[in-house]
Write a structure and sequence with these properties.
By secondary structure, the protein is mainly β. Helices cover 5% and strands 51% of the residues.
């Protein structure tokens, strides 16, 4: 029988053998939260179940948003620059590619000119669509060759955020200072129309069925509801405070909208277009991510360095994920099968 001393000696030898020191935390069983930190110029890999940071990868100055490949192998971080939209500063011209298995920067896509690339989305065609703010356009990128295939004009300045219809036929951009939404035909790679909304808008989201697009008036507490069949604003959702970003739930029942100025998260019933709940949100919340299974919503608090965690079944806030100030864009990477 082993004595207590021999057990302690054996355990000490195991600790010093290097096995524990070199092992990386395994990816969480349920999935991975990938977060861009624009102040640190990093990409964070986060275990949402245990609320811990697994890795931190340095990227360019600054990456605000992140998108992942469908197979969960790579993350793409458009390098925007060191300023805010419409403000003077550096003009990014690249997209950093991070290998999520090795947790390292594996490549950089050169867009060929200063563009301030911001939001990236993958289409069903496997191509990567990225807002090219300084070109008033959306760039089309082949991720296999890492080359720009085309540039689709949006017809408006400051095309900052982007959503795609689930069938991959249309793209919609929120044009900040123009206060409009551009509608793009992705197969023809041309501009369909621009939709006037307000003096200025921020961010954009789309219903799961693709019938409605939402963008946020920055001078009045309301959300524009755009009918994608007519390409017109058909309704307004009135809010207690100005909203910065929104995201619908996968079942199309609710719209979550966050107010950066009020640090509030509003829950809108998409049948009545009325606010039914108001919850506390982290300081300067900038983005909402709803997990694909519809069970959890994550809200990134850029100022607080926290990610709020909302249980969408109970409508209760769970303990937040504590990170560092600057957390912004997020993407969910499901567990490998």
């Amino acid at each position: 029988m082993l004595t207590r001393l021999s057990l302690l000696v054996s355990f000490a030898m195991f600790l010093t053998s290097g096995v524990l020191r070199v092992a990386k935390p395994a990816p969480p069983a349920g999935g991975l939260l990938v977060v861009a930190n624009q102040k640190e110029h990093t990409l964070l890999l986060v275990d949402p179940e245990n609320r811990r940071e697994l890795a931190k990868i340095v990227v360019g100055v600054n990456g605000h948003e992140v998108m992942a490949s469908k197979d969960g192998r790579f993350a793409y971080v458009p390098i925007y620059g060191n300023s805010g939209v419409g403000r003077p500063g550096t003009d990014g011209s690249t997209i950093d590619v991070i290998d999520l298995q090795t947790r390292k920067l594996s490549a950089t896509i050169d867009l060929g000119k200063p563009l301030r690339p911001h939001r990236a989305e993958f289409g069903p065609d496997g191509l990567l669509y990225v807002t090219a703010e300084l070109a008033n356009a959306v760039d089309v990128i082949d991720p296999s060759t890492r080359k720009v295939l085309a540039e689709i004009p949006t017809g408006e300045p400051q095309s900052h955020m982007l959503v795609l219809s689930s069938d991959g036929r249309r793209a919609y951009t929120a044009n900040v200072s123009a206060g409009s939404v551009s509608v793009l035909d992705l197969s023809k790679r041309n501009l369909v129309t621009t939709i006037p909304v307000a003096k200025s808008v921020q961010r954009i989201s789309i219903s799961p069925d693709g019938r409605r697009v939402f963008t946020h008036d920055q001078d009045a507490p309301r959300i524009a509801v755009i009918d994608t069949a007519s390409n017109k604003v058909t309704n307004w959702i009135e809010l207690p405070n100005v909203a910065y970003a929104s995201e619908p739930t996968p079942d199309g029942r609710w719209l979550l909208a966050v107010s950066m100025v009020a640090n509030k998260l509003f829950v809108v019933d998409l049948q009545t277009l009325k606010v039914v709940r108001a919850l506390e949100a982290p300081e300067r919340s900038s983005e909402i991510l709803v997990r694909p299974d519809g069970g959890i919503a994550y809200v990134s608090g850029t100022g607080a360095g926290k990610i709020a965690v909302l249980d969408l079944l109970s409508w209760k806030m769970e303990p937040p994920i504590d990170l560092t100030p600057g957390v912004d864009g997020m993407v969910w990477v499901g567990a490998p099968h």
